[in-house]
Design a protein that fits this description.
There is one protein chain. By secondary structure, the chain is mostly helical. 47% of the residues lie in helices and 10% in strands. A hairpin with a 6-residue loop joins strand 1 and strand 2. The structure holds zinc ion.
């Protein structure tokens, strides 16, 4: 059996336990350069958040819906900001890009 198949088996076994799912999730965040002072608290907050902290829509996990749960983080500092839905995460990403380009925080009332 090759290493790729072994890795898939290990990941499947990890997903069967709370600690395994937690380790996998935090591992994904770290590969995306998310920074947290307290991974346990970040994970607890992520797991216990039921509604988007921006638009209040009910969050779902593990699918491709627009209201799937996302851990929003600043792409400049890496710091965790909020648990939000996919739609709000995309909007925040666009606002961050505007801020990086213009040098000013995004203001929806400002004309370009
Ligand atoms: Zn939202």
């Amino acid at each position: 059996m090759d290493n790729k198949k072994n890795l898939l088996i290990i990941r499947r076994l990890q997903r069967e336990t709370f600690q395994g799912r937690k380790d996998l999730r935090i591992g994904v965040w770290k590969t995306r350069k998310v920074i947290s002072d307290d991974w346990d608290a970040t994970y607890e907050h992520y797991i216990n958040t039921t509604n988007c902290e921006d638009c209040d829509i009910e969050l779902v996990s593990g699918n491709k819906c627009n209201n799937r749960k996302c851990l929003d983080h600043c792409h400049t500092t890496g710091k965790v900001r909020a648990v939000i839905c996919h739609t709000c995460n995309l909007r925040r990403g666009r606002e961050d890009a505007i801020e990086r380009i213009t040098g000013h925080p995004y203001n929806p009332l400002q004309r370009f």
